[in-house]
């Protein structure tokens, strides 16, 4: 099968990559561009904003009057590139088919690639969908296609929750959702959850010669961290394996720790951040309860010395795990459209679990490879974009979702 990428898809992908939508920036340039593009085709977009109106989700239905159909979901934000060694401008959206770096020079790159932050993760998917908007509008399919483009995915899937709530308010009940994260166009039916928490520990400070009158915040934090490590060892030892993941059990990890002001002061404050990456078959709420219960037991002795000493936990990111099925109609549809008999699992978090938890059968399938995402010299091959274009054109022509 030969795959041909339309000029329009490539140009739109370049246009979107050139917009700086790192998660700590506004994404309105991109969202307004998509809104205006769709408005030119007579399609109205619904925007749902964050609290300070600097970012928005966009939801649009293509094929007015048709039955609700498949959502094409993508996030508009990207990770930053600070400190990364890029050989091209991350916003250049340059297309090249010759070696970029010395490391690359050892092998011949025989396929053209689109370079830039967000090229693989995941503006190209949005661009190819947008380039084929007229096809979705004019198709003879009885089903509409819905665009759901979110903000703040990379920092914890925050935007999409409002988008889904708004969709429900509007009484729109899509049949299925395809999340176009980079899977090399192989339908992915599961990923782990990602849950991050901050733990602030309050102790009681004292001169370090007077430890009995103090509560050492670092030492108490370390006890809870030790508990987390024991839990992680327990997952590795005891958890039923979920084969297919690189790490086939849940993990726990502490990512940051801050505490202490001087060698001779018992520290009053400490703070650390940790995460669970839970299997779709494991209960992350139970994991977190176990940590909190452990901390509460430790608090009893702390409060005897200082009544306001203790632990405070704060969730900072909650990306639910995703578990679809090879038997779901949307998975089989994605397999047919991609010409791909396999399914896969992915090691990264996506919005798929949030759509699935909202009652919408979901699959993850998009162009490019996650090994290029978040990396310097991120790229997607034009061959992958062409496959994506075939996939979406096939969707426009789909008369039945089964
Ligand atoms: Zn992504």
Topology of helices and strands:
Blueprint: H1 7-17, H2 28-39, E1 45-49, E2 56-62, E3 67-75, E4 95-96, H3 102-105, E5 113-115, H4 119-131, H5 133-138, E6 143-150, H6 159-169, E7 176-179, E8 190-191, E9 194-202, E10 206-207, H7 217-238, E11 251-259, E12 265-266, E13 269-277, H8 284-305, E14 310-319, E15 322-323, H9 329-338, H10 352-357, E16 362-364, E17 379-381, H11 382-396
Parallel strand pairs: 3-6, 3-7, 7-16
Antiparallel strand pairs: 1-2, 2-6, 4-5, 5-17, 8-15, 9-13, 9-14, 10-12, 11-13
Structural class, please?
A: alpha+beta
Total domains, how many?
A: 2
Low-confidence stretches: none
Q: How are the strands of the biggest sheet laid out side by side?
A: 1-2-6-3-7-16
- Name of the CATH superfamily of the largest domain: Zn peptidases
SSE series: HHEEEEHEHHEHEEEEHEEEHEEHHEEH
Q: Helical residue percent? A: 25-40%
CATH architecture of the largest domain: 3-Layer(aba) Sandwich
Ligands bound to this protein structure: zinc ion
Q: What is the CA–CA distance across the termini?
A: 24 Å
Shape: elongated
Residue share in β-strands: 15-25%
């Amino acid at each position: 099968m030969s795959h041909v990428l339309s000029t329009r898809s490539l140009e739109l992908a370049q246009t979107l990559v050139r917009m700086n939508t790192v998660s700590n920036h506004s994404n309105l340039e991109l969202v307004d561009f998509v809104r205006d593009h769709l408005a030119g085709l007579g399609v109205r977009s619904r925007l749902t904003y964050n609290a300070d109106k600097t970012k928005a989700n966009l939801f649009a239905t293509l094929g007015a009057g048709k039955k609700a159909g498949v959502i094409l979901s993508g996030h508009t934000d990207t990770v930053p590139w600070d400190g990364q060694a890029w050989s091209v401008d991350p916003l250049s959206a340059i297309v090249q088919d010759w070696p970029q770096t010395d490391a690359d020079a050892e092998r011949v790159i025989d396929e053209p690639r689109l370079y830039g932050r967000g090229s693989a993760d995941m503006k190209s998917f949005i661009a190819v969908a947008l380039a084929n908007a007229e096809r979705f509008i004019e198709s003879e399919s009885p089903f509409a296609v819905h665009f759901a483009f979110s903000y703040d995915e990379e920092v914890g899937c925050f935007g999409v929750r409002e988008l889904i709530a708004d969709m429900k308010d509007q009484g729109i009940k899509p049949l299925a959702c395809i999340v176009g994260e980079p899977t090399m166009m192989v339908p992915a039916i599961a990923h782990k959850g990602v849950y991050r928490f901050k733990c602030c520990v309050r102790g009681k400070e004292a001169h370090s010669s007077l430890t009995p009158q103090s509560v050492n915040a670092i030492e108490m934090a370390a006890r809870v961290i030790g508990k987390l490590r024991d839990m992680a060892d327990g997952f590795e030892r005891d958890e039923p394996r979920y084969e297919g993941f690189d790490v086939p059990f849940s993990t726990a990890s502490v990512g940051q720790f801050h505490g202490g002001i001087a060698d001779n002061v018992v520290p009053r404050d400490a703070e650390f951040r940790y995460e669970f990456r839970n299997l779709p078959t494991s209960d992350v709420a139970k994991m977190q309860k176990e940590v909190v219960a452990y901390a509460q037991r430790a608090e009893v002795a702390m409060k005897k010395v200082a009544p306001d000493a203790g632990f405070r936990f704060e969730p900072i990111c909650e990306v639910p795990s995703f578990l679809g099925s090879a038997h779901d109609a949307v998975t089989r549809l994605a397999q047919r459209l991609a010409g791909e008999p396999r399914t896969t699992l992915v090691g990264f978090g996506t919005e798929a679990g949030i759509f699935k938890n909202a009652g919408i059968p979901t699959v993850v399938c998009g162009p490019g490879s996650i090994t290029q995402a978040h990396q310097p010299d991120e790229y997607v091959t034009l061959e992958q974009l062409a496959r994506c274009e075939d996939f979406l054109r096939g969707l426009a022509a789909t008369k039945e979702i089964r």
